[in-house]
Amino acid sequence: TMKNPVPQAASLLLEKLMLLVHIRAVPAGSGGKTPPPASGYYDTSCFKRGDLLEVPRTLFIHFGIYLGENRVAHLMPDILPSITGDRRQIQQMVTNKRLILGVIARTASVRVDTVEDFAYGGTIVVNHMDRLFEDRVLGSEEVARRAEKLVGTTAYSLLWNNCEHFVTYCRYGAAVSFQTDKFCETVKMIIRDQRSVLASVLVGLASIVCLGLAPSTTLATIFIPFFLWMAG
Which of 8, 58, 199, 224 is deepest in the core (most CB within 10 A)? Predict the structure, then answer.
């Protein structure tokens, strides 16, 4: 049996929209030209093994699990693990190019970096999500061991398997992404807004021409691109 192309096309376009927003949230220095803060830039004495760390970006939040000794495990889209086994190359900081290609190829890795490399000058928030899970927080050592066990190459999806899914699984036992849910709800609200239907149709038709989408995907693409027009 053939799968329905409409939900597949909708999922694909949602991921493309989120990728565009996500790229703008990446620090300007992540292209490899500007080094991250020097070691000791952050005071790690207040971090405990198993802590969930958040670094707010422009529109998204990056997440990681603190492992102790200035080390953070975090999930990053990265094309390199799928084309080479050279650990020295893979361990180098992920550039924008590697990140974008990783998202397109749906390839990522759970890697261990220093706090400085993980945060890249951003403000670090500790265990801010605990309030949403109440009594579901796992023991600190179990959290850290879950993260360490997942280190390595993994599949990636901006919608279904991103850095937030990784940390919520490790710390709370349930892989969820609140920022993805919020993004999807925003798209739904725009679609329900009758005043934006005409603009959505026009931008949707334009995207079909530009992206070369097949007619079978028209229904899925007619509304979703309007979000890109509104956000841009």
Answer: 224
Instruction: Provide the phi-psi class of 32: left if phi over 0, else alpha when psi is between -120 and 50, else beta.
Output: left
Task: List beta partners, residue 76.
Answer: 109
Contact 159, 14 (CB under 8 A): yes
Query: Do the bridges between strand 61-68 and strand 71-77 make them parallel or antiparallel, or are there none, so unpaired?
Result: antiparallel
SS3 percent helix, strand, coil of the chain, rounded to 5, is: 55, 15, 30
CB 162 within 8 A of CB 177: yes
Task: Give the tens place of pLDDT for each residue, 150-181.
Answer: 999 999 988 889 999 999 999 999 999 988 77
**Domain residue ranges of the chain, discontinuous segments joined by +:** 42-175, 193-231
Mean pLDDT of 60-76: 96
Arch. (CATH architecture) of 42-175: Alpha-Beta Complex (3.90)
Question: Which member of 163, 170, 184, 210 is catalytic?
Answer: 163
pLDDT computed for residue 130 by the predictor: 95
